[in-house]
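Task: sequence design from structure.
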């Protein structure tokens, strides 16, 4: 039987590394991003999706239902941060970050569960962040979104564990991706000591390929030798 995986935000960075690793592991992978980046593999399917749009997510899951009728893996990866002092943050920053990082993840998860609970198996990895566990100055909205992801992930883990569905939060520190192109984020990147996107994908694959009886439900990854800030 073909194994089907969905990666949100698989066009770049951590999501792209997850797409490549899943294909290597013989999954058919659907990449739900806004921008198509070609990949020469029969196992790769791009489905143009803005996870801030419920309509787009509905179309994505209709496609999955009609073409495959199952879903084995969901990697909720699409996300971004716009950093600023809270007093300078705009309400639109708040709405847009929550729409992608939390609301989009919620809708995708709910729809994926329809397949997984019926199958009595499934794996959902939510790409959270160290910002979901710690506080970061000048990143309060982003931190709030990732704390929300942690709360959702931990509650869901308890809800579906008995149904054979594995849920995990992945919490990376700084990773060398386009994440740091967003306003305000540059201050927070530790350019000489970043994780590679593949490090995060490897953590996802480790949890996915753990024995079925074993539920790895959180992984925190940090760069070694962080640059000291003066
Ligand atoms: N880089 C870090 O230091 C770091 C650390 C901890 C956690 N994270 C988390 O890791 C995840 C991936 O980020 P990254 O570092 O790989 O950044 P990235 O290189 O900027 O990639 C972000 C991905 O998310 C997609 N995306 C963004 N908004 C989207 C939307 N509305 N709908 C669908 N896809 C969307 C982008 O695709 P399109 O632009 O094509 O839509 C892209 O593929 C995020 O959740 C981020 O919060 C990153």
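Answer:
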């Amino acid at each position: 039987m073909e194994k089907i995986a969905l990666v949100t935000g698989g066009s770049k960075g951590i999501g792209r590394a997850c797409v490549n690793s899943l294909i290597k592991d013989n999954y058919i992978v659907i990449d739900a991003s806004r921008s198509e980046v070609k990949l020469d593999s029969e196992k790769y399917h791009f489905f143009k999706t803005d996870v801030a749009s419920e309509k787009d997510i509905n179309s994505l899951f209709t496609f999955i239902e009609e073409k495959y009728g199952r879903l084995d893996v969901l990697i909720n990866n699409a996300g971004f941060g716009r950093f600023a002092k809270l007093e300078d943050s705009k309400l639109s920053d708040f709405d847009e970050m929550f729409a992608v990082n939390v609301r989009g993840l919620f809708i995708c998860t709910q729809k994926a569960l329809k397949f997984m609970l019926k199958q009595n198996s499934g794996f959902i990895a939510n790409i959270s962040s160290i910002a979901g566990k710690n506080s970061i100055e000048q990143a309060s909205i982003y931190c709030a979104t990732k704390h929300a992801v942690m709360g959702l992930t931990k509650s869901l883990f308890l809800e579906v564990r008995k149904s054979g569905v594995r849920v995990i939060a992945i919490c990376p520190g700084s990773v060398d991706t386009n994440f740091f192109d967003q306003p305000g984020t540059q201050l927070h990147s530790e350019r000489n000591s970043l994780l590679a996107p593949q490090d995060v994908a490897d953590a996802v694959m480790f949890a996915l390929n753990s024995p079925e009886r074993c539920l790895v439900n959180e992984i925190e990854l940090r760069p070694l030798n962080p640059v000291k800030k003066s």
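The CA atoms of residues 96 and 146 lie 14 Å apart.
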